[in-house]
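Entry 14. Two folds queued back to back today. First construct below, sequence then structure tokens.
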Amino acid sequence: PTAKRADIVFPSTTPYEREDIARANMDEYLFAMPQLIAPLGEARNDYDIFAGLAARLGQGEAFTEGRDVEGWLRHLYAEFVEMSREDGIEMPDYDRLRDKNWVKLPIAGDEHAISPFEAFRADPAAAPLKTPSGKVEIFSERIAGFGYEDCPGHPTWMPPEEWLGSETRGEMLHLVSPQPGDKLHSQLEAALQDVEGARPERVLIHPQDAAARGVADGQIVEMVNARGACLARAEVSEDIRPGVVSLPTGAWLDGAPGAVSRTGNPNVLTRDIGTSRLGQGSSAHTTLVAVRPAG
């Protein structure tokens, strides 16, 4: 969907089309990720794309430092090997890692466990936190000083503009929009539709709410509020509480602005407003919608 708004698109490779090394923070396994297939179409490695752009700007050597993709992988892995050695951990060299594909790091177990804020807990004066007071702050003078009505200097309950406790709720249901289980955000949505066929995203609804609205399992429903409307496939289930519906994110937005999203994109229903003047986080989970059979 982002590419639809771009003037220039540089198609990049997926993890299956390039060499890499992977490890999550605090993960005890490090994996070599061999290239499985050649890049499809005009796709290129992200690094090669940016190296090419740097070259066009006359900064190619400054960006690459004379290394290609494999050169950087070897260089970064060598730095990791040295850091591990300083911690008393011996790592295989790059080629042996590639041969085995993975290595288990001896960082699990009680003897390697890391306790958050351990130093602060042991000696708060010697190891203060990165707060103005150096302590755990239940009240923040700095935040209070901003004078934001929607974000005072202490934790407080502030009723959302849309929620089940609202006196004007009527028959509306509370919408939550979790991450999808069959794709990463909106990535690979097109591939999923190639396999399953083009159809709206599933919305989870409790049997009690479905019966009250004449909605059957598998039926196409319309979800609507003052901001927009979308279609979805009803999945009637006890796995969700009454009064709440769950429509995952990720469906590609279709049609013109203001049109009904036939793919089931919850963004047409949620408010485009930050959580507060301070945080400006996503407020997508404070949304009320009406659900009815489409027709």
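Second construct, same run, same settings:
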Amino acid sequence: MLLNVIYGHTCGDKTSADIASTHCAALVSLARAAELTHHLDPKNLPQDHLTAGINGNDSPSDTENWMSSSFSQPKERRDWLNWKLVEERKRTLYAIFVLSSFLVSAYNHAPALTNSEIRLDLPCEEDLWAAESPQAWKQMGGQTASKKTLSFSAALTSLLTASQREQSQSANLFYNSDDLSNSENRPSTFGCLVLIYSLHNYIWETRQRHMGRQWTAQETDAMQSHIEPALRAWQAAWASNPVHSLERPNPFGAGPLSADSIPLLDLAYVRLFVNLGRCKEAFWQRDWNGMADELARGTDIFQHPDAAMNDVVDPSLTGHLDTRRDSIADLGVSELAISRTPTQEEPMQTLSNIYKIGQSKREKHLRKAAFYAADSISMSDRLGNTFAEFSSRELPIQCALCAFDCAQVLAEWITTVQERVGPYLGVLGRDDADLTQVPGVMLLEDEDCKLVDKIKEILGSIEMKMQRQVQNGNSMSALSVMQRLPSVVEGGYGCKILIATASLLEQAAVWPVTKLMARSLEAQAMRMKERTEHSVMMTT
């Protein structure tokens, strides 16, 4: 049933997706009825649960055989089998939770299984779960190791209180007893995946509390200052595990699960500054123009009367410093450079900290999200974890979702900038314009220019990969690819980013829904092309 729900939501067929949504709710109801949401001792489980967990079937003869032999089994084996049964139930519940949370991220559906319902410990370490005998299990710690596992609620609370710890002490949190990067509290690989999904749910729930009314500047800042430290704390916990890696295949032989979590971290950072909820609802309805309208409107990022000063003076002048993750080196790949935000650079001269002409608060939020989006795309590209790589066709669906959202946010930011500077600089990405000279230097901040350069690098890398594909492909596909090269596509940087990403997503062989993502990006690219052309027709 779980596999059918996954298929329905990723096959690309709307009818199947609607049916799968109904089945997802039924699946969660079954999990609740089986009491999977909280711990049960093996002795309190029905007998058919025990035999199904041990023998894989529940025939009467097998039940009798198991009951007659269970008491004659060594205690070590009984302990192992009982532990496996409890862990199996726990992991089944978390698999359902991951699916429920994915639907929140992908389609803005209300979570079928909420964070508050789970009363379980986090999953154990993968090597302990993979133990093939009582002896191997005991050698890895057995019951002692399993009892060290942190509860889901305690782990999530630790993440969500990270902002308080950052404010109350300047010491290294690695040695804080409440910190998840502490080796004693460190979540397992599967536990990390569960927790990053729980943070996505938390962001969704926080925004739902504000439905029906506009956000104030203070509420927006409060949410971001509360959740950003939680994401950094999760990142520290992930990085504290020596077998975690961004690389595929995992260089330590630990499987791909640790790398599967990182696209979700990137998505969480992006969505902290841009609410894509209504865009996701439009995607569910296959309303591509509606998606473009919602992203361009930016309903939750607007001008506040009480934020007038903040729209004129850079936050660094008022003492409110924003922070973000330092570099990809924090995730264990130090050779990959990643861009830095203004708060990480040396302070610029006061005059250069003044917001540029016409620059809005919305554009500032978009730029911060776009930096994360660009970093995510660049990181995947350098590691070979993109759908342009033949060896990466089996990337998990969250990689496609991350590429999809990051491309939209990056394209929306550059198109928003284009609409502001078009009358003075022409079409960015088509017309030659020296951004370091007047009028460019009067319209764009240093960080704007850095992000534009990053977009150029991303498009250049994608073009090289597409050209290699042309050399290795047949004549028909080669012609199609040539027409989509970033250097050939018209309409400015925003249009180029969306068309290039659509070309990559179209190559994914495992998840048919990525074809829908590609069609959506192509439709949005046409809308951005119209906005770009309109911007240069405006007079000063």
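Quick look at the second one. The longest helix spans residues 75-107. Residues 150-273 form one domain.
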